[in-house]
Structure formats: C-alpha cells, structure tokens
Amino acid sequence: MPSSRSISLKLLLARHEVVLVLVILVEVVLFQLLGRNFLVGRNVSNVFRHSVEIGLLAVAMTPVILTGGIDLSVGSMMGLCAVLFGMMVNRLGMDPWFASLAVVGIGALGGGFNAVLITRLNLPPLIVTLGTFSLFRGLAEALTRGAESYSGFPPSFLALGNSDFAGIPAQVWIFIGVAVGIWLLVHRTTLGRSFRAIGFAPEGARYAGIPVARNTSIAYMIAGAVAGIAAVILVARLGEARANAGIGYELLAITAVVLGGVSIFGGSGTLAGTLLGWVALAILNNGLTRISDYRILEQPVASVARELSGLLTGLLLLTALSLGALTKTLAVRRARKQSLSDTSPNLVKS
Amino acid sequence: MKHKTLIAAVAVIATLPFISCSKSKSSSKITIALLPKSKGNQYFVTCEKGARAAAHELNAELKFDGPINSDPAKQNEIVENWITDGVDVIAAACENKDSISTALKKAQAAGIKVVTYDADANTDARSFFVNQATAQGIGEQLMDTAARLTGEEGEFAIITGTLTASNLNEWIKYIKERNAAKYPNMKLVDIKPCDDQKDKAQQEATNLLSAYPNLKAIIGVCSPAVPGTAEAVKQAGKAGAVKVLGLGLPSENKAYVKEGVTQAVILWNVEQLGYLSVMAGAAVAKGELVAGAKEFNAGKLGKIEVVGDNIVLGKPFVFTKENIDQFDF
Q: The whole model's pTM is what?
C-alpha cells in the first residue's frame, strides 16, 4: 500500500534524527567525563561561535542537495566575499554594515552564476561548482596577489564576531534567523516542496508544472548569499579579511548535511537533520580539544585529541550512513515478507 | 532497532575504561601554551623540543598545539580554547598578525600573559616578542663568516631574493657596513636577484663565476640561493675554491655541506628559540620580567638582553660540516 509505505519512510527519517540526538548525547556525556572544562558557559559558547560559519553553509547547502545538486563553491565564495568586504571597507571607506549587505548580494550573484550554467546549459552541478570552487578562490587570490589582507575594522563591527548578545554569541542570533528562514522555506512553502520534487524526479517535476530552472536557481542563489553572510561573520570573528577564508568549509558543510540524513541524490531529507548533523560535528570538534594526553590502553595516541577529529568525523559519518542503509534494507525486506501480495514496486513520495 | 542503539551505546561505554587522560591540574604548577604557525613543520617541532626542556627545568606544564591545515581561523580557536582552560602563559608564533591579535587580546583581558616568538603579533596584543635574530645580527654574522672563510681578503658577491624585499635589503645593508668597518681587503663586486628560485640562483651563480674569475665567496641571503649557488659551484668544478655560505635550513643544505661545496649555513638555533620563548613567558608570569627590563635570566642560556619589548636570542648560529648532523630541521 502506498500510504503505509510512506508512513514507514517517515518513521525511518524520524529515526535517523533520533539516532543523531543519541549520538549528540553520547558525545556530551563522553566529553564531560573525559575532558576538562567541557560543559562550562565559555566553552559551550565557543562550540557555537567557532562553527556558525560551517552551520550557515550546511543550512544553505540543504535546499541545493534536496534538488539533487551540490555546491562545492561556497567555501571559495567565502574567501572572495571576505576579500571584497575588506577592500570595500579599507580601500573605499565604506560602512562595514553596508559592505556586508553588498557582499551578501555578490554571494547571491555568484550563486546565480552557478545556477545559469547548471540550469541553462544543463551542466552537472558537481562540475560547475568544481569550476567556480577554483574560480572564486582564484579571484580572491588574484585581487590580493595572495598576500594582501585587510584589517583594522571598527570595534562595533568586530563585536559581531566576538561579543555576546543576551548571553548568546552575537553571530548565533544571525544563524538562528537564517536557519528559521530556510526551515520555513523548505518545510512550509510550495517552493520548498518543489526542491524535493525536483531532486526526486526532475522530469516529473517539470511535467507537474514546476518551474524547475527557476526554483533550482533560487536554491543556488540562497547558498551564495549565505556564503556571503558566513564570510562577514568570519571576518568579524578574526578581525582580518584574507583570501584563504573558508578553505575546506564546503566539505565540512556537506558532511553535516549528509550526516543529517539528507540524501545526496536529492529528494529526501530535513533541515532538522542537517542541524543535528552540524551540532554533532561541532561538539565532536570542540570536545576533542578538551582532552589532552589521549591514551588508549595506556599507549599515548595523540598529544591533543583534536588530532583525531578527522578520523572520528569520518568514522561518525560512515557509521551513521551504514546504519541508515542497513535499517532501510531491513525495513524493505520486512515489508516484502509482510505483504507478498503487494506488487507496486515504487515508493510514493508525499 | 532499539536493540541496535542499545548495543552501540553499551559498546561505547565499554571502551571507556581503556581511554584515560589527565584531568587533574595542580594549582601550583604554571601552564605555558606554545602556539606554532603549523604543527607538522619540522622547524616548530624543533622549537617544541627546546620548549619541553625549558618547561622541564621550570617544572611547568607545557601545552603545544597548532593548526594542522591551512584554515586561518584555527590559531584563534586554539587560543580561545586555552583561555577556557585558564592557562597562565601563551607564547605564539603568529601566522596572520591581525587576526591572531584579536584572540591574544582576549587572552590578555582574561589575565593570561602573552609573549610572541618567531613572528610577532600587533604590539598591543603581547608584552614581549622573542626575536630570533635582528637584521644587524644576521648581516654581521654573514659578513664575519665570509671573512673567516676567505682569510679576510678578495672579491665576493651576494645572491638575494628580489631587489625590493625590505628584510633582505636590511641584511645586505649590515653586510656592507660590516665590510666597510672591519674587512677593508674584501670587495663586494655584485648583487644578483634570484626571485626566490633555486634554478635562477644557480644560473646567476654560474654567470657570476664566469664574470668574476677571482671570486672568493658567494653569500646567499635567501634560502633558495644557497643550494642553487652550491650546485653552480659544484658544476663549475670550483668546490672549495669559491666558498658558499648563506641563510637557510640545515636540512636543505646538508648534502652540499657534507660534500664540502657549502662551507657554512647560517640560521638561529631553533631549539633555543623554543627554549627562550618558554623561559620568557614564565618570567613574565612570575613578574621577573616586566616592561622596561634590560635583561633577564633565561636558564641555561644565561642572561639575555632585552631591547625595548624585544627579547633577542643573540647571534645567529653557524652550521658547518662538523655540527650539521645534530640538527633535523
């Protein structure tokens, strides 16, 4: 029966998020037991302060991946936006807040550039954004000749990256705003629903009258604009704008999205999953810095456990995905056993 | 599926007893955190070696952590984590001067003493900079070594990076001053740029050798110049007749030094730089080293001179055939 299938699928998705909540709880308990100063106000603030940029990219990457695409260029876009921001403020004497708006717009334009190549020329998103991955970073490096950097921003602007507002790091409020906005978009609007429809079956979506090219473009433009926001926040936190801002962040963002249970083929996934995936990674990375003299069976493994963060991130991702795939296979097998008479092989999506 | 989650949870908890880490921190011991530009770099690994020795002598706890990739935000995050841990001293080698200063100022606001080494931060973000070598020290050591190798007479030439590099020009200025003041029988005949490329340095050195047949020595003031020059001298069959010396890492030049083509590689003693950084940080924390001090006691290095807010390691070290094997950076 189609309807019972879709219910069991929903349960599966729900379970993935439950699994992530458990993972996060296990992390918190482990780091509190093994680490020093883990659950203290300052450190909890740091967990989020240091990962907001990646969180923003992950949240904005979610609609893109839901459409069956990918955006490898967001980290490079951060570098380009950071450099342009620095130039506008330092060289042209622009107001930092106005410059922030400008680079968010530039980010959206960059996303639009990706979108044009993907939707008009039908080039694969992986290839297009691999190209702009080099292009945007290269532009940032060329503009600064690889060496120049910009600093000396006014304290009122640096406060965005380094101060608290109502007890919470200032930039986290912006993150909450962006996350709520994208959640509403993905889960509460027809445009957002169309992302999943496009990812699930682009041809079907087209026949159903969805403006596939336009809606896909919107997803990429949002990703670019949010990369601009992330760049501004990173510059405010570091106090320096340089071409190497955001190096490698795109892969960390994709890791969070995929860990959150969003299908890399598009069509299924939730923003809540992405957020949980991001939190699980953020806690892992911070928690490991709380542990020093890491030993397994009395053998010193690493002077600082942070050196293991790559290893553990990889293990976490592969374990979570393998568990997901296993439970899915088992569920399908069980469903087959239960309803041998059911001949419809297609899963019907809501 | 409940069982699976349970099994996984049990498995995780079961591994707990095998994982241990030091949680306790005795309050009397001071904790010094040493931040390298990058953790895997042999140069900073050597710094750490010296730092460990200093921490051992001081009975202090040493934390050594730094970026392992090129993410420019990493140094700041490490400093912020140290603030959370309440370390007593941070000694930082700064990759991005302005951005790390943001974090170091936060550390100062939290009551942590900050010194820098190797590469300075903004001056208001630290109390002292442990300076590995002054321009004067480098220039004079290069000239003195060239004079010693050539018997204080004859023609010599310099291969530099670019003619516009301000630090290199500063060193060359002191080479010339020392030459004029102490070695009247030595004559600087030419200065050639190699664009910081070994190939170009080799080509320029070959040209110098044919243009000045009486050349006694070539000084390389940027690190690619020294092995490049050595290769040219070796191929010209003038090994030993034309002395090769200059600034560089011992590891890059080891082969030529052992063959007797390169006579001297000059660099500060990196292990001592790490040692001095920790000693300086501890002295600041204990109140033994305050603004305006002229010198301070740096353990086995003895009394070290303080010039303004710079703590100077002293004369650069000369690596030769005899001692180069003791160094692995």
A: 0.79
Is A247 near chain B, with CB under 8 Å?
yes
Q: Domain extents for chain A? A: 2-338
Structural domains in chain B plus CATH codes: 31-132+270-313 (3.40.50.2300), 135-267 (3.40.50.2300)
Contact check, Cβ <8 Å, B69/A327:
no
Could you say which of B1, B23, B99 has the minimum Cβ distance to residue A240?
Answer: B99
Interface of A with B in 186-245 (CB under 8 A): 234, 237-240, 242, 244-245
Give yes or no for a contact between B107 and B88, defined as CB atoms under 8 angstroms apart.
no
Q: Which helix (H) or strand (E) holds B91?
A: strand B89-92
* Interchain contact A92–B (C-beta under 8 A): no
CA distance B20 to chain A (A): 6
Based on C-alpha coordinates, what's the Rg of chain A? 21
Q: Cα dist. B253→B235, B242, B266 in Å?
A: 16, 16, 11
Which residues in chain A are closer than 8 Å to B65, comparing Cβ atoms?
Answer: 303-304, 306
Task: Please give the torsion angle defined by the CA atoms of residues B190, B191, B192 and B195, in that order, rounded to the nearest 10 degrees.
Answer: 170
**pLDDT tens across B14-57, in order?**
555 445 444 444 457 899 999 998 887 788 888 999 999 999 99
Q: How far is A23 from chain B (nearest CA, A)?
A: 9
Q: Tell me, which fold does domain A2-338 have in CATH?
A: ABC transporter involved in vitamin B12 uptake, BtuC (1.10.3470)
pLDDT digit string, tens, across residues B132-177: 888 899 999 999 999 999 999 999 999 998 888 788 899 999 999 9
**ipTM of the complex model:** 0.79
User: Tokens representing B46?
Assistant: 């050597």
B17 CB burial (10 A radius; 0-12, 13-18, 19+): exposed
Q: Tell me the shortest Cα–Cα distance from A242 to chain B, in angstroms.
A: 9
Chain position carrying tokens 């994208």: A182
Is residue B321 within 8 Å of residue B257, measured between CB atoms? yes
